[in-house]
């Protein structure tokens, strides 16, 4: 049984009609960067709960969540209606294994995300611990429209902070946008465009890939990396090259 604590919404950013960030204060236990909490609202007498990744560093007391409104969804439209001062329930303890402790050493760490799943990577990068063991880090954010690149300013700030170690690349699938690749993650790996623009290659010897977000993207990318690059899922008992988290 989840242990719920009461959270108070202290800030809301509506980036687009469908995308928002909620900043919440709640007496939660310390989480590990990359983990998620569950948020819940009591809707018509029923507690509706879903998983949401922390975007903030665990050292930041303001809990940040990046949310997309799924039009027919049960919880997300209600979360998108929250305003400053409203209550939202948060699980006291965070969950999940999409954390650096589960990632083996590599020369290059690739962080590949779609949509709101950039969150765990921003938490890891904002904390900035345990990253010395990677020579390069590549953060990729793939979205439908350029307007959905809500955290691009933060991504650019992180590039400055990491002084050459971090490279970022945006991908936009449904329009052309200067500075972004056009298309989808697996296709842009398959045709070499992602590696070319970033200036690093994906090889089993040098790379570890973290995949987060759309489950079909996660599956398609894993399949491609297996077939084209001889890379496999990383397991504690059988080390590999890919760590993933699916959002639904
Ligand atoms: C580990 C984990 C972490 C997650 N972190 C986040 C997060 O940080 N931000 C976030 O917005 N969501 C996140 N999700 C998804 C979230 O838990 C809910 O599924 C989502 O908010 C939809 O809930 P709902 O009740 O509105 O829709 P439901 O009535 O549950 O409908 C679910 C359907 O909505 C679609 N869907 C669900 N989530 C998404 C999504 N993020 N993007 C696109 N389509 C989606 C899928 O088609 C899915 O079948 C995460 C899920 C998991 C498992
Ligand atoms: N983003 C918005 O502006 C918006 C607006 C209104 C409602 N919504 C709702 O929000 C939900 C989520 O939308 P989202 O845009 O955040 O997430 P999404 O649908 O997962 O799309 C994010 C990115 O992932 C890509 N993608 C999808 N399937 C893939 C696959 N198999 N392999 C590789 N890449 C893949 C998408 O490319 P493609 O474009 O090629 O699919 C897009 O670039 C949906 O239910 C949607 O109806 C979103």
Automatic annotation (TrEMBL):
InterPro entries: Cbr1-like_FAD-bd_dom, FAD-bd_FR_type, FNR_bac, FNR_nucleotide-bd, FNR_type-1, OxRdtase_FAD/NAD-bd, Riboflavin_synthase-like_b-brl. Its EC number is 1.18.1.2, 1.19.1.1. It is found in: Cytoplasm. It holds the Pfam family FAD_binding_6. The keyword Lipid biosynthesis does not apply. The keyword Oxidoreductase applies. Residues 2-101 form the FAD-binding FR-type domain. Its cofactor is FAD. One of its GO terms (biological process) is heme catabolic process. It catalyses: 2 reduced [2Fe-2S]-[ferredoxin] + NADP(+) + H(+) = 2 oxidized [2Fe-2S]-[ferredoxin] + NADPH; reduced [flavodoxin] + NADP(+) = oxidized [flavodoxin] + NADPH + 2 H(+). One of its GO terms (molecular function) is nucleotide binding. Keywords: Cytoplasm, FAD, Flavoprotein, NADP, Nucleotide-binding, Oxidoreductase. GO terms for cellular component: cytoplasm. Belongs to the ferredoxin--NADP reductase type 1 family. This is Flavodoxin/ferredoxin--NADP reductase. It comes from Proteus hauseri ATCC 700826.
């Amino acid at each position: 049984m989840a242990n719920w604590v009461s959270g108070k919404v202290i800030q809301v950013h509506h980036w687009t009609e469908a995308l928002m960030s909620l900043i919440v204060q709640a007496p939660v236990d310390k989480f590990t960067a990359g983990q998620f909490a569950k948020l819940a609202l009591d809707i018509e007498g029923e507690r509706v709960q879903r998983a949401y990744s922390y975007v903030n560093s665990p050292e930041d007391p303001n809990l940040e969540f990046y949310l997309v409104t799924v039009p027919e969804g049960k919880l997300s439209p209600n979360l998108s209606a929250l305003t400053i001062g409203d209550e939202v329930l948060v699980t006291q303890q965070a969950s999940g294994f999409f954390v650096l402790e589960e990632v083996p050493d590599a020369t290059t760490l690739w962080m590949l995300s779609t949509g709101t799943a950039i969150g765990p990577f921003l938490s890891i990068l904002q904390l900035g611990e345990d990253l010395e063991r990677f020579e390069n880090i590549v953060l990729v954010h793939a979205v439908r429209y350029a307007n959905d690149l809500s955290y691009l300013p933060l991504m650019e700030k992180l590039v400055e902070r990491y002084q050459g170690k971090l490279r970022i690349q945006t991908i936009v699938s449904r329009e052309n946008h200067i500075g972004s690749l056009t298309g989808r993650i697996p296709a842009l790996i398959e045709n070499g465009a992602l590696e070319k623009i970033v200036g690093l290659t994906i090889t089993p010897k040098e790379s570890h890939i973290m995949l987060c977000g759309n489950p079909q993207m996660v599956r398609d990318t894993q399949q491609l990396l297996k077939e084209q690059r001889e890379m496999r899922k990383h397991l504690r008992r059988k080390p590999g090259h890919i760590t993933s988290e699916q959002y639904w």
